[in-house]
Amino acid sequence: MGKHMTEPTDGLAIETTGLTKRFAGKKTAVDDVTLDVRRGEVYGFVGLNGAGKTTFMRMLVGLARPTSGTLKVLGSSRLTNEVLRRVGTTIEKPAFYPGMTGRQNLTLLARYTGMGVADIDASLKTVDLAGRADDKFRTYSLGMKQRLALAAALMGDAELLILDEPTNGLDPSGMAAMRDLIREQAASGRTVMLSSHLLGEIAQVCDRVGVIHHGRLIAVGTTGEIESKYGARPSLVVTCDEIPRAAVIAAELDTVEEVREQADGLLVFAPEDAAGPLTSALVAAGVTVRGIRPNQRSLEDVFLEMTSDTVAERQA
Ligand SMILES: Nc1ncnc2c1ncn2[C@@H]1O[C@H](COP(=O)(O)OP(=O)(O)OP(=O)(O)O)[C@@H](O)[C@H]1O
């Protein structure tokens, strides 16, 4: 803490220490998250649905009050209007009117938020909507709707963009267009924090990613660092029935380091030669084993492994 208070924070766009949000009667949504986002970087905040991404981002822009911990946005620990004016966000999607055009919607929003209408054309051009700006919102594709929300976030010439799931629901070409847009924002000097429930979808666009699981930040690094740190452990994919019981049996074998339950079987962290003894143990216990193979992992697989529950977590 003292360190953060005495050091200049010019290099950081977002800085949180032990940030926590607990909703009454619920599990902790954001649990002791300490992270920083450097100025000029694209930071991916990745976690499964319900991991706590939106709640974290809402606290960054003053939409939710932290239960404990501290935060700094653009060097300020007070989220004044002056600070928030420099932050563009798509956390709360603007309620666009379907019967109005894209341009009319942005004009209304600019008036409502006190922003200059001069930025509208530039924003529409940036998100590649200039050609459809005078068409009604209801005629837009999902990708165009997401891009209009981004245009709204860009209008105030924000230094920092906080984008909640900007690629959600887009088809591959829409996603690629959104990724290009995000990179362009970073190239023009903005800082971008974006969230996603798919690491593979945003990996290419991010300088660093933070992985959040059950409200906790469980890994931070470049995607290369995360892949080599978490992807290097040998593991076996077991397709079987009676998954909870099979997990307990697998965990008892000496060469097995860890067992995670998956939709149609187990992910067992063990050397390849554990496959024989593991199959025998499962079969002897009456479990039907339909397949067992060494795990070849993509970056997305590594992420899913990191965010699947261990047997201990499921029993907790
Ligand atoms: N206002 C609220 N009141 C009570 N619980 C909440 C509230 N907002 C979020 N939660 C809970 O906090 C947890 C984290 O939710 P959050 O929306 O932050 O996750 P997320 O990672 O953004 O997921 P998603 O991608 O599904 O939005 C969830 O268990 C959710 O049910």
TrEMBL record:
Gene3D superfamilies (alphabetical): P-loop containing nucleotide triphosphate hydrolases
One Pfam family recorded for the sequence: ABC_tran
InterPro entries reported in the protein's UniProt record: AAA+_ATPase, ABC_transporter-like_ATP-bd, ABC_transporter-like_CS, P-loop_NTPase
Transmembrane regions listed in the UniProt entry: none
Keyword RNA-binding applies: no
UniProt keyword terms in alphabetical order: ATP-binding, Nucleotide-binding, Transport
Domain ABC transporter residue range list: 14-239
GO molecular function: ATP binding; ATP hydrolysis activity
Family: Belongs to the ABC transporter superfamily.
Protein name as it appears in the record: ABC-2 type transport system ATP-binding protein
